Amino acid sequence: MTRGALTRLGLVAVLWALAVGPSPAEAQPRTRGKKPVVTASQHSKSVRAKVRPTAKATATRGKATPPRRPAATPRVTVAGAVRGPSEARIRRAPVAVTAAERTADALDAILRGPLRFGTTGLYVADAATGAELFAIHPDDPLNPASNVKLISTATALAQVGPDFRYSTRLLGAAPDADGVVAGSVYLHGTFDPTLTSGGLSELAEAVAADGVRVIKGDVVVGAQPSRDAIYRARFWVAVRAGTPGRSASVSVGPNSDYLEVVNLATTGKRAKVKKGAGISVRSTVVERDGRPRVQVTITGTIGKGKSLERAVVAKDRNLYTAHLARAALTKAGVAVEGDVHVASLEQFVAEAAPTGHLPIVLGAHRSAPLAEIVARVNKRSINWLADRILTTTTALAHDELPAMDDGVDAMYAWLDRAGRIGRNDAVIDTGSGLSYRTALSPRQIVTVLRAATAAATESAPVPTPSTVTATPTATFDADRARAFRASLSIGGVDGTLRGRFRSPLRGRVHAKTGTLTGVIALSGLLEGRGGRTLVFSLVTNGHSRRQKLGVRAAHEQIVTVLDRYLAELTPVGAEPTAATEPPSPDAAADAADADEADASEADASGDDLGDDRDDASTAP
Q1: Is the pLDDT of residue 610 over 80?
Q2: Burial of 376 (0-12, 13-18, 19+ CB in 10 A)
Q3: Which residues 6+ apart lie within 8 Å of 295 measured at CB?
Q4: Average of pLDDT values for 494-519?
């Protein structure tokens, strides 16, 4: 082919390429190391495609943990108003920064720092007026864990009062002049969740003190265990080493005719025994003369010089209680000629009527006042006891058997009266808060606290119409409010806060803790030195297990910042003092960071989950 023909062929190829257009690879060249530019519309579509949740992704083993917040967390509001960035206020040098703004800046620094993971809701109000002071996600439905006990204990106090006492009575025929009771006696309770073998001993001593010397029949207990039996029907087996190569020493307590001990345990020649050769405790039900007994068999080897104790749950709470009552009567000097059996109260009365001996109260044991029991629940955060006092006080108030559904209904009814919080506004399903379904907002918890502590006072200043306030509350009377407030843990003093909030906050934080996996909560009252009191609720959800102590320390920081805010206010009844130069928001943030570093080393022994696990693990 000639040179001219090649030139013409090249020109045709160029013209053809221009007419057809560039290839896709040439039209969209890609540079190594750089991402292609995506338009806003394309970006939104791709994000929606990526974040669409799946059923598998949202199912977290039944744990309803809120999603983590984005990095751009909304700022803390002051008195219900959203503030502008602190940098804008710094540029306006002539404008003074208020104490509330400085406080909000410090709270923002904590929320953007140690609390940036998960979701944190905060609501702070004046206890007397209910005026809103600071808030962040105040209406988010969060899980407050054991803060639910604030509602269940308030409901119990509302239903029967702080002076109510559970009673357990021994019924039988009136004793004759020689102190002899004809026929059997009946143990009749009122669902006492605190009844123990010690309570039965007190009952027996009261019977003996009234002159009873002999009971000519059986000790009968009702078939309803939650009403008439001790709640924690268990006994202890203690094993102690004896002479090496010989039998070990075994004791059982509290002991009664219901228990038979078979001791096959031996003492080792060394302090340590081989793996699998240690002490084993087994219990089985056996028949003796047609009556059931529990046979406790101890086998294995205990090391030289060693001792141990094991808790064993009784097989039958009612029979075990009847045997304990019989043993207690015998120890108190009252001879019981019969054995024990289980029967309804109606059956017992029907059998006694033909003899002409109508039952009377021979002796009674009364529990501690409900105010003291509620204090045990809230200070130590005892799950099983919280559920029990809720269900039993509800049952006694409505003359029915205890049931959790009825107790939850009573809690919702109290919430509606206390703060117009309805079933559609919150989710509760237990009295203890040991649930991952619970959903309450910080604002609602503050409403509960104000109602139960009767925080509003007639002498308190009335909020202006423009003031943002918490939901109106129907407060307790003075006795109920006093009992409820006394039930809260005191920082640095007792309960789950005994190792937290030491100087300078010791004794001025009255609050309830809450702990579950991925849940940390703290709600209560902060008493200022000047006489003002703040009511607050802090709830964090969605953090990891390893962040638990950091979240708890950050909560303590926040309370410390709130205390500084109270310190800057004019004390109640005092004259205003001259204004001082306020520190910059950056200085407040630096101080908050310093507090976090100190608080991170705080004693974590107040973790209420530990108490909950100890009590729940042994409840029958």
Answers
A1: no
A2: middle
A3: 260, 262, 283, 284, 285, 286
A4: 95
